[in-house]
Amino acid sequence: MSSAAAIPAFGVPKCNIVVCGSGNGAQTAAAVLGSQGHTVWLYYSPRYQQRAAEMRAALADNGGAITLTAHALPTAEAPDGTTTYKGAIQGVSTNAAELLAAADVVLLSVTAPAMEGLIRELAPHLRSQQLLLFLQGTGAVNYMMLKAALQDCIKAGPTSSTTTSLADRMPMYAAAKVLPWACRLQAPAQVTVCGTKERVKLALAPDACGLLRVMLPRLLDGLFPGTRFLLDANAVLEHTYFPYGLLCSDVIHPGMMYGTWAAWDGTPLPHKPLFYHSASQEAADMIEALTADTRAVIAAMCKQMGMAEAIHVPDARELMSALYGPQVADPSCLLSALRSNAAYAGIYHPMKAVPLPAPAAATAAAAAADSAGAAATEGAGTGYVPDFSCRLLSEDVPFGLVATRGIAEVLGVAIPCIDKVISWAQDKLGKEYLVGGKLCGKDVASSGAPQRFGVTRPEQLVIGAEGVVAAAGAGLAAPVVAAAAAAATAAAAVQALLLPAQQFVGSRAAVQGVNASCADDREFLNGLRAQSCPVLCRPAVGSFTRARMCV
After folding, report:
1. In 3-state terms, what secondary structure has residue 534?
2. Phi then psi dihedrals of residue 122, to 5 deg
3. Counting beta carbons within 10 angstroms of the beta carbon of residue 501, is it exposed (0 to 12), middle (13 to 18) or buried (19 or more)?
4. Whole-angstrom Cα distance, residue 334 to residue 314?
């Protein structure tokens, strides 16, 4: 193992960053950013004063930093080995108004069920000159939550912000579709990265202008070394209510849980089984069945939108190969890809320890001693049962499968395997989504289903198109936005909003043109303001834009 003071930075100017959340994603992101010299603060909801106090104490004991032990981050000192980093953290606060006042970037990394409450806490203090990054996002439902929260703030009257326009209050929205890392939280201020994803798909707001679509992926590349952020070439689904984890975590996690535990008889296990490396054929089969159902819904949506053929969305095997590259030793089929991904080594099923009767304890201890690839038992009298309250069900079912099921219901598509898993999972979670074969249970209102926003007709599944007229001043996107506004149907509007490749070229040329007439960074930033790209007007990010696009 080698040690390094900082994760290598790739030309990104120092930013003020607020990281919201306390889990593995939030603490890993904070460590990566702090290690590069960015000013990083942690925000905890006022509801979690005790948790915030514990994190402050952990940071104090760790020299004011989060320790990150990485197995796959790129370094010159240890290109293939384990490296330990220290990410400096300025502090922990429960005061959103104070932290967000100076923030360039606000990063949200919390569970999907907690997302809406957090957005509403932050909304009164957000403004257009900020990047709001969801790491990871669950779907366009996040954008709808943000928009609704900001509109409610405007209706409520003056707050710490003096602006009353949605355009002035709306930060630049971006959402990573998956976390950049396979990471685990060992303890407060102690995280481990088992693998780094080579590529991560990024979603932006439906009306994001061309300049932002060019620059934000490159900015995130620099903030999170080792991962390349890419806009999806088939961004049409980002203009609908499909979840971002489509055919990835939203089918892998529930499929693995169902395939592993649906036939379980309730007997405690002597050990914690590996989640991926002990995957069963039944689990792989269910993942593929969920994939087939999801693709049927995608095909129906594409037909509804007037597309000649359905877009191709990579399945779980293809996604793992693309995300992890050579870390997947055998990508020949889904089961072998699950079992051979080095980034998944040592990841166990979420389990709860339970006491065993004396005879069963003796049998369990003997079985654990002979079991290959199993975690050691905590004691001779300890057994394990699955924890069905884990996020693999509590998050990926309501904001993944239920969201897809909602779209299917509007489009009239039958998806029996997704129905089977939702019915099983809602029983384990104590939730109610499907009732009598319809998505009308009481917990739909807190899910990612489009029905929670009043969607009942196919044309309502398209989001963003209704706002294109208001976005007509969105700088370099204006021609595309105007075309969308003039479109006769929602389908045509979405296709117009997909921002063809030539606009990207035009965006770069426009920035270079602004730069050619500017004597210094101040003039350059004023030029960017004329292009209606507010997030790039922040001095740090604007300077980065100039360096990366104008040389």
Report:
1. helix
2. -85, -25
3. exposed
4. 12
174's enclosing H/E stretch is strand 172-176
Cα separation, 476 vs 211, in Å, equals 7
* C-beta separation of 487 from 493 below 8 A: yes
| Rounded Cα distance, 356 and 170, in Å | 55
Q: Rounded to an integer, what distance in angstroms lies between the CA atom of residue 156 and that of residue 150?
A: 10
What is the identity of the amino acid at 297? V
- Rounded CA gap, 524 and 382, in Å? 65
pLDDT tens for 10-51 read 567 788 999 999 999 999 999 999 999 999 999 999 999 999
Q: Is the pLDDT of residue 510 over 60?
A: yes
> Both tokens of residue 74?
């790129």
The tokens for 21 are: 């959340």
- In 304-463 the beta strands, taken as DSSP E runs, fall at 351-355, 382-386, 434-435, 438-439
* 25: amino acid identity, one letter: G
CB atoms near residue 9 (< 10 Å): 16
Strand partners, 466: none
Cβ proximity of 259 and 280 under 8 Å:
yes
Nearest in space to 429 (alpha carbons), one of 460, 403, 373, 390:
390
Beta strands in 223-264 (DSSP E): 228-231
Which residues, in sequence order, are bridge partners of residue 88?
65
Q: Are 544 and 12 in contact, with CB atoms under 8 Å apart?
A: yes
What are phi and psi for residue 30, nearest 5 degrees?
-60, -40
Q: How far apart are the first and last CA of the chain?
A: 38
Query: Which helix (H) or strand (E) covers residue 525, if one does?
Result: helix 521-530
Please report which confidence band the pLDDT of residue 551 belongs to, taking 50, 70 and 90 as the band edges: very low
> Based on the number of CB atoms within 10 Å of its own CB, is 391 exposed (0-12), middle (13-18) or buried (19 or more)?
middle
Structure tokens at 335: 């089961």
Q: Which two tokens stand for residue 238?
A: 């980002």
Q: Which residue has the tokens 């939280």?
A: 185
pLDDT in tens, 241-253: 899 877 788 999 9
Concatenating the DSSP letter of every residue in 505-521 gives HHHHHHHHHHHHT-SSH
Q: What is the largest CA-CA distance in the chain?
A: 83
Task: Please check whether residue 136 is in contact with residue 176, taking contact to mean a CB–CB distance below 8 angstroms.
Answer: yes
Whether the predicted pLDDT of 441 surpasses 80: yes
What are the DSSP calls for 137-148, one per residue?
Answer: --BHHHHHHHHH
The token duo for 351 is 């389990």
Half-sphere exposure of 163 (CA within 13 A, CB side): 16
On average, the pLDDT of the chain sits at: 81
Residue 63 per-residue DSSP state:
T
Nearest one of 108, 115, 87, 249 to 174, comparing CA atoms: 108
